[in-house]
Amino acid sequence: MNPAGYPPETVPLQGRYEEFQGQPGVSTVVQYTSVSDLPEPPRDHIIWSLGSFFYSNPCCCLGLAALIYSIKARDRKVIGDMEGARRYGSTARCLNIWATVVASIMVLIMFIVAYMY
């Protein structure tokens, strides 16, 4: 409670906002609210890694490597090592991107070869 007996949410503001000149002997009460944002938890890309593992693993082993790094990222997140989880998650994302690109190029080449013959 403040000195006037009001709860902090309903403190009446004295003075005017349009004018910065306050009345003599009257103070303006301003309440500040701070909001702390919690950092976003790191992503482990486990679903994308599973898709890369099952669908693009015959092309190369990038899907398996991405799945391993995704599992490591999830384990690090569970034990509370957020920096390690970010590192492993970033590596898993890069491997997933490469696995997706390589698999897409292989499918495109197969369609082009099948269309030509």
Automatic annotation (TrEMBL):
The chain crosses the membrane at residues 46-69, 95-116. Keywords: Membrane, Transmembrane, Transmembrane helix. It is found in: Membrane. Its main location: membrane. Pfam families: CD225 (PF04505). InterPro entries: CD225/Dispanin_fam, IFITM_antiviral_protein. GO terms for cellular component: plasma membrane. The keyword ATP-binding does not apply. It comes from the Eukaryota. Belongs to the CD225/Dispanin family. PANTHER family: IFITM1-RELATED, INTERFERON INDUCIBLE TRANSMEMBRANE PROTEIN. This is Uncharacterized protein. It comes from Pogonophryne albipinna.
